[in-house]
UniProtKB/TrEMBL annotation:
Domain SHSP: 21-131
InterPro entries named among the record's database cross-references: A-crystallin/Hsp20_dom, HSP20-like_chaperone, Small_HSP
Location of the region described as Disordered in the Swiss-Prot/TrEMBL record: 123-143
Similarity remark: Belongs to the small heat shock protein (HSP20) family.
Record protein name field: HSP20 family protein
Biased composition (Basic and acidic residues): 123-137
Amino acid sequence: MLMRTDPFRELDRLTQQVLGTSARPAVMAMDAWRTGDEFVVEFDLPGVDPDSVELDVERNVLTVRAQRPVHEGTAEMIAAERPRGVFSRQLILGDNLDTEKITAGYRSGVLTLRVPVAEKAKPRRIAVQDHEKRHESPQAIGS
């Protein structure tokens, strides 16, 4: 069996234990895809209280913030591999998305955002008019 060791991960873990902070920013894993006329984005946030989740949109930047509580008290941590504290991630949304109609839901540790495509960005059919028929007089048609 091949095992890889990451000396920096161990250093980060030790620094976190000594200082009580995370040396590396916590990762908020994400999947995103388009289905029909909307984009769906899912963030893995297990153990996060939904009330701690904040979503902000400024212009075309969506910011997601969440917090997983830090263990406090007299308990001695034996292993602390799950990141704790504040998580933050920003997404740049295209101009073709309707930021006014973003919806969010949280279920089983997954935050799901639905971002609809703006009406102005949806493909639309343009009717072609026959200008020859339009400019003929009724008498000219019957002759």
